[in-house]
Amino acid sequence: MTPAPFGRRLLRVIKNERMGAYNMIWVADPERPGDPEPGQFYMLAAERDWGGAEGRPYLPRAFSFARCNDAALAFLLEAIGPGTSRLAELEQDDGVWVTGPLGVGFTEPERGRALLVGGGIGAAPLLTWRDQLGPETSTLLGFRSAQHAEAARYFPGAQITTDDGSVGRHGFVTELLREELDADAEATIYACGPPPMLEAVRAIAAEREVPAQLAMESGMACGFGACMGCVVQTKNGYVRLCVDGPVVDAAVLESAWVPGAPH
């Protein structure tokens, strides 16, 4: 696991790409101590206009990184609140406070092929994992609409579903997952998405007795396990997603629902 350097770093925005409902923000990071592992995350905050008269936002926001190269990191986000909206407004050369990489990422499959399953903004950590595994990796993505599905441009060859049927198949991405497992019962599932989708994936993995790694989401204030704000219950007791996750083995979970997670 790549550890986070002490303290936060002030990085500069290289570009901010708008893709339908999402933004892909690239920040220059040529001097980081090492490359993050797919599934790890960072805490982000804008250098300017973060907090103020309205009193929001003050705490940084947690984001899985979507891509990484020798000189930069990329983060996929959707503007749904004051923090994400401020980050979505960032322009070239704007400053971003960054802490990370944090947490535990994905691990190589112990059997069969990798099968990636993403829902909405949950596609973010799967992108860098697919980059590492190879472009032929089977990928299933579910989105709300055509506007959200524009993020699929980064996943050539992916199978797509939308809630409204505007792109790909009309339905849920878990329907595609069942079909893939019907054809290959030895796959290893890697999933990230909203809690209802992750719970459905966990249940399918348990039913089919296939391994699954879930990148889970919860409200995080510190990223270092001190605040206990991101605990989830497992069969072996509580774990903190920021240090024991965010990637968790589905087999240790009774449920993938996380109290307080965004829906």
Q: What does it look like?
A:
The protein is built from 6 helices and 15 strands. With 263 residues, the chain is of the alpha/beta class. It folds into 2 domains: 94 residues, Translation factors (Elongation Factor Tu (Ef-tu), domain 3, Beta Barrel); 139 residues, Nucleotide-binding domain of ferredoxin-NADP reductase (FNR) module (Rossmann fold, 3-Layer(aba) Sandwich). Strands 10-9-8-7-11-12-15 form a 7-stranded mixed β-sheet, with helices on both faces. Strands 1-2-5-4-3-6 form a 6-stranded antiparallel beta barrel. Strands 13-14 form a two-stranded antiparallel sheet. Helix 4 runs parallel beside helix 5. The longest helix is centred in the C-terminal third of the chain and has 14 residues. The radius of gyration is 18 Å and the shape is globular.
Please sum up the structure shown.
The chain has helices at 82-88, 123-133, 146-149, 173-183, 195-208, 241-244; strands at 9-19, 22-28, 41-46, 61-68, 72-77, 95-102, 114-119, 138-143, 159-162, 169-170, 188-192, 212-215, 231-234, 237-240, 247-249. The protein is of the alpha/beta class and 263 residues long.
| Helix share bin | 10-25%
Strand count, sense and closure of the main sheet?
A: 7 strands, mixed
What's the alpha carbon Rg, rounded to whole Å?
A: 18 Å
Question: DSSP helix count?
Answer: 6
CATH topology of the largest domain: Rossmann fold
What pattern of helices and strands is seen along the backbone? EEEEEHEEHEHEEHEHEEEHE
Low-confidence stretches: none
Count of all domains: 2
Strand order across the largest sheet: 10-9-8-7-11-12-15
Which class best fits the helix and strand makeup? Answer: alpha/beta
What share of residues are in beta strands? 25-35%
CATH superfamily caption of the largest domain: Nucleotide-binding domain of ferredoxin-NADP reductase (FNR) module
Can you name the CATH architecture of the largest domain? Answer: 3-Layer(aba) Sandwich
C-alpha termini separation: 29 Å
Overall mean pLDDT: 92
Q: Which CATH C-level class of the largest domain is it?
A: Alpha Beta
Shape: globular
Number of strands: 15
